[in-house]
Amino acid sequence: MANLDRKPSRLMPNLLHILGAYTNEEKNVVNAIIEVNAGSRHKYELITETGHLKLDRVGYSSLVYPFTYGAIPGTWDLDGDPLDVVIVNVDEALVPGSLVEARIIGVMKFEDDGEVDDKVIAVLNDDKRVDHITSIEDLGEYFIKETTYYWEHYKDLKKPGTGKVEGFFNTATAVKVIDECVERYNTEYAPKLED
Q1: Using CA atoms, how far apart are residues 106 and 41, in angstroms rounded to an integer?
Q2: Is 112 inside a domain boundary?
């Protein structure tokens, strides 16, 4: 991981555009760039053009992210951003902007203010303490309730009722969502890139 097939440069490479989504497609492992840690109200977002982190907003309520959150490089979701990834069971804050390998365990279908904004659900690939987690079901019923509550209420003080969780699905469905977002990135976004 993190060994780029590029010559050293004075310019910082944008990991969103030089890394692929998968590090090991056979084992359902993806690259993920960390944006937000569990326990934060601050919503950081990667600037697509540069790869830098920007404080997008401070949460509108007392709700905090109940999980670590980031983006998958080389993907483009229907909301006009890289595909989101929720990384669960992270027991220590990760450095925002850092690159991790995450093993897919499912996907949450989500609509945000009328736009598709799906969230791949994963665990850290190299954390042996989560090897036993292979599906969303392994996280238990409370994870589904807490995650649904968070996404359906995190904007209530600004735009009530705009978030709708449409369900939690297995790894195969998550891979399909990722593959669609990789295809969309390759056809819609990549042609706009400058060398």
Answers
A1: 24
A2: yes
